[in-house]
Amino acid sequence: MTEVRPRAAASASLWERDQEIAVLTQAVDTLCADRSSPGGLLVLRGEAGLGKTALLAEARRIAERRGCAVWSARGGQTLRSVPFHVVRQLLQPALVSLLPEEAREYLGDWYGIAGPALGIADPGERHADPQGVCDGLVAAVRRLARREWPLVLLIDDAHWADQESLRWLAAFAERLGDLSVLVVVARRPGEATGAAARHLDAIAAAAHRPVTTLGALTPDATAGLTRATLGTDADAPFCREVWAVTGGNPYDTVELLAKVRDSGLEPVGSRAGELRALNRAARGGGLVARLEQLGVDATRFAWGAAVLGTGIRVDLVARLTVMSHEDAARCAELLRADRILTEPDPAAGQVADGDLEFVHPLIATAVYESIPDALRRAMHGIAAQLLTDSGRGVVAAARHLMEVHPDDDAELVEQLREAAREHLAVGAPEAARRCLERALQEPPGPDVHARVLYELGCATLLTAPARTIGHLRAALTLPGLDADTRVEAVWRLSQAYLHNDQPEEAVRTVAAEAARHGPGPARMRLQAVRCMWEGLHAGEDTSPGRSARLAELAASCTGRDNSERALLILRAFDAMTHGENAETVVELCDRALVDGRLAPGLGWTDPEWGVELLMMLGSAYACADRLDRAESLFAEALRAYTAAGWSGGHLALAHAFLGLAYRRQGRLRDAERVLREALRLAERVGRGLPLYWSATCGLIDTLLARGHVGEAWRVAGQYGFAPPYPSTIVLPDTRSVRGRLLLAVGRTEEGVDELESAGKAAAARGGHNPVLAPWALDLARALAAQDPGRAARLAADARRHAERFGTDTAVGEALRCAAALETGPRAVRLAARAAARLEASPCRYEHAAARVEYGIAARSVPELERGLALARSCGADGLAARARKALEAEGALSRVGV
Fold first, then answer.
1. Tens digit of pLDDT for each residue in 23-65?
2. Where is the Orc1-like AAA ATPase domain (predicted)?
3. Which of 303, 230, 306 has its CA nearest to residue 268?
4. Calculated CA dihedral for residues 184, 188, 193, 194, nearest 10 degrees
5. Is-contact 51 13, C-beta < 8 A?
6. How far apart are alpha carbons 469 and 490 in whole angstroms?
7. Which residues have CB under 8 Å from 193's CB, separation 6+?
8. Which residues touch 878 (CB under 8 Å, ≥6 apart)?
9. Cα dihedral 606, 612, 618, 621 sign
10. How far apart (Å, rounded) are the C-alpha atoms in residues 214 and 230?
11. What is the model's pTM?
């Protein structure tokens, strides 16, 4: 068989890589065709030593020959705990070339969100939203990429990248279709676990071609490489043994051949038996033995370099290993000569003068793991101190502090707490969690132990509510929390219970803490929080007299502080859910505002009360027909969260509730648009959460109103819109919407069962608002033929509750249902009254439906034409089709231009 040789300019590690090089070349050519070329993503996967780094170096050469800008980064085994390490490396060429004002201009609104993560802006006082930071980084790279076309991004050892960078890369990969950038990612299989593995899988799934899995060299290629290195006189048995010893691993082959050449071993079959001993010196225990042969000082220097991992400078290693600069320089030269350390290739990216790096990550791993445990921990402690003394800050030192042996060091605890605060400020809660968990191992002193647990609970609230519960419960059992912090801890613990779908525990927790306090602001706040969680609980009312107690608390509230304003909002929401008069609901809501606006400290991004309270305020307005105020509130939430860079659950909820307001207004196209965005955002946070149900339920309800029944059914199947339902109230009511969906697709019996379940659930919690849970109206229509008596009773009860609530929408919808159950002149009269009442309502879709139904009942062409125009303006395609069919039956279709 003919030996396979690479091009002369290629490195030895590129033997038998012509196919991969062709793919890289084609990708670069496509990128450089013009500025409108689509982006591309290539993933190279292979075990250590198979030539991934060599292929990335070849990709750089190909790209630079075509005039591309090339940015590169590399993950590191000891650097995975450093958040945004890889993305900062990657953007370094762009960032160092920009003045601060230029960076602000290029990043625009994202500067304050992504800038701290990139290290070019100071973080704000609040905890940054991780998803918002991720989105900001995606936007930042997209903007920078547009000015650098054609741009190639190279990421090596992605399996060792920090989790925050991988999250960014996965999100960026999904957005490459409209951006002319080529991304090449190299990784080992099986090295990453947990979230990092999921992000790597998402990156691979976004690639524009199958993942390229590198294989070992064939025996022929190994023979060709052997003869190219040692001379053509290397005989066949010797070459076959080289392949057998190395398994065709390119890195092992290159290293083995270098040792053969250095040792003067003759490349003949009779000497092939010596190859295995030489190969053992290339990695693992053999490498350690080889290192020891260079002397104690060289070994210490290599250990110091492995502890640093990056930024390996002779002077810094000298200080770390406590040796003179001259001795350190001599050791560095020995290690370079023995192919353990090398000088980085300046063409591979930005490197500081005098930096060193390990020849291969396999060597770095072997050296690091060879350091005795106690000594390695001590060296990390020294490294942390060196970085702190050099002004690099506690965040740079934190990865070393994490490795120090626990020793009751109060200063170390404070350093880790400070690092955690900085991590949270830039949107890296997982990094903060690791710092605080390490601080607990120290352990903290009795005076700060509870504070560390509290801070850890706060750090994990958004990402792991179950873990938060354990931390905060432990913190509350210990002394050390002042009164205000204790109340805050109870509040956050109750939030965690709610997010973990344990609303009963949330209620019990705040109730128990409230009982510990006398009259005053703290007790009132806790009472308000208890009422809030009780009001959101979708199960049976486990607290008899809750509404009466809440009414009593709110009766004396004037809205003089935020605790009183919170109680007024909670009372309004409770009154709305129970179907009390809507004027009372609106009056309570208005009293909770200050000059018609949210009070300072009660805004959407203020942490004291949380998003739930304001969503209850907006929902009360929406159900009470004050849709202008509901829309204003939810639009303000959207603006506030977008400006603050909160792209996770908060932004998903803002979209979902703004969609609710649009749906109620009859702006069905707008509602569908924002609800689809809500669902997209909710998917990133996680399925099963109340916000996920709100987005899904709202979208299905809107699609049904538009008449897109098939799409509603598809969405329900795709997103799991079926029992079991969450333990918190969801708007719109899940059971009512699912019952209506089942009826719409012809599964009448199941739909009736679902609506009856909705009625039982509403009755159990005292919910008698037909706008909030319109199950009775749909059930009455469904039973009209088979059980007209029960249908009539249901409609009558619904009408009674609607008149008690008193809004035009509630009464008009009840009249629509009553008309649907009648025939003849009475049906026409009721339909006319429904249309007239709904004309005064802000809900245009319901008005359109009433007009169409009145037109059909009265066989009135003008009413049908009016209903058709309203249906078209709403985007209610199904209703418009019904109106057109009725007009056609009346012979008047040509009059409306159809």
1. 999 999 999 988 877 778 999 999 988 989 899 999 999 999 9
2. 16-184
3. 230
4. 10
5. yes
6. 10
7. none
8. 706, 707, 708, 709
9. negative
10. 25
11. 0.79
